[in-house]
Amino acid sequence: MSIFTRYAMDALMKTTHPEVNRKQCWNLHPHRTPCTACKDICPYGDEIFTRPNLVKDWDPCTDCGLCVSACRSGCIAPSPEQVQRDISPADSDGDTIWIGCEKSTRKNTVVRTCVSAYSWEALAYLALNKKIVLDLTPCGECENDVCAEHLRAVLTRLVEFFGQPLFEARFTLAYELDDAPFHVKEYSRREMMEQVTSGSKKGTKQLLRMLPGLRSEDESSQDFRLLLHQYTKQLKAVSETPLRYGYHLPNFTQKCFACGRCEKSCRSGAIKFEDLPDGQTRAVITPWKCSECGVCVAACSNGGLDGLKLRQLTSLGPVSVYKCTKTLCKECGKPIAPNCADGICSVCRIKLRTKKRQEEAVARAKERQAEREAKKAAEAAAKELAEEIKNASPSQPPIGGSSPEGGAPGVPVTSTVNE
């Protein structure tokens, strides 16, 4: 077997599944309630996930895409095969795509485990290419409340993204069997041969992309948000009046002084602070990288971010949302609040306070040492004086001793005159 054939067989027989980036998981950031969305919505949640951000075994995974669609922080990335499978209907013939679940009795062009397995970004990408008919006939009898709640969230997000008029023009919600029936297009013999040839070329191209070493890093790392950004960029270039898309972005307030804490907490790199030539600093957000998770809002402790705000954008490329003038710390040069009295950051304030306490402790220790040394010197001087007195006492006459003339002790010597 040749090397090419072996790589082709490995690529075709390899079991695909999403990838989990644990560093980007919501549960590893400041929060009040843990997120278990991926484990709750997965049909094999207990068999695959030991906990939401840790996978026990991928073998039961069917690559349905429910966990990818439900992940709030975007830490579960879809497999390249899932990305290609979900966006391939955009290249099909016809102007309408019928999407339904496995429980539906209708004839749909796309059948998934659940309609909510499509993320809102994937549905938005398809809606910009074709009209979408969502078959919701089995949803009324479905007992999976988690999927139903997530589907409502997806549809609400699509309305916010497109706006009500454009959403109604691009989406049709079929609640009954007679709503938006599936139309089969009849092809001529020549059109049929063209379809077969085109399908063969697409299949060969996809197979070559799957082979190791033949897929570029950009293609392997593509997700639905990046594809949506690329297509909206193309539409903006060719249209005279570009469409506007609703996207939730962090809402900066006047309390923000560009400390950079939100930039560090964003694992997807959607927030960047840039210094301008005029001395100001601006916050630049890349919407297609932002998963609207809210980790940056939770990480801000200064009140500089006030939740997420729905903004109308003409493209999902980088956009400047806030400008401010930095006030730097006198000690370390990091940004501080403009109304800071002493002009230093909290870290340097603690360091200076600690240094002052250490200096005071050293001064007190030196004073105590000087007192101990003075006390020792006084004791040594007293001891030396006592020794000097003791050594000098034998050379002096004792009190009440004999006189040098030999008189009786204790009796004074007097001279007598004989008369």
Any key phrases for this structure?
419 residues, 3-stranded antiparallel sheet, 4-stranded parallel sheet, 14 helices, 16% strand, single chain, Alpha-Beta Plaits, alpha/beta
Structure, described:
The protein is of the alpha/beta class and 419 residues long. The chain has three domains: 1-77, Alpha-Beta Plaits; 79-243, no CATH class; 245-325, Alpha-Beta Plaits. It contains 14 helices and 15 strands. It has helices at residues 3-13, 37-41, 45-48, 66-70, 80-87, 120-129, 145-162, 164-170, 189-210, 217-220, 224-238, 261-265, 295-299, 346-392, and strands at residues 19-20, 49-51, 54-55, 76-77, 96-101, 110-112, 131-135, 171-174, 245-252, 271-275, 280-285, 305-313, 319-325, 327-328, 335-336. A four-stranded parallel beta sheet has the order 6-5-7-8. Strand 10 (271-275) and strand 11 form a beta hairpin. It is elongated, with a radius of gyration of 42 Å. The N and C termini lie far apart (162 Å). 22% of the residues are buried.
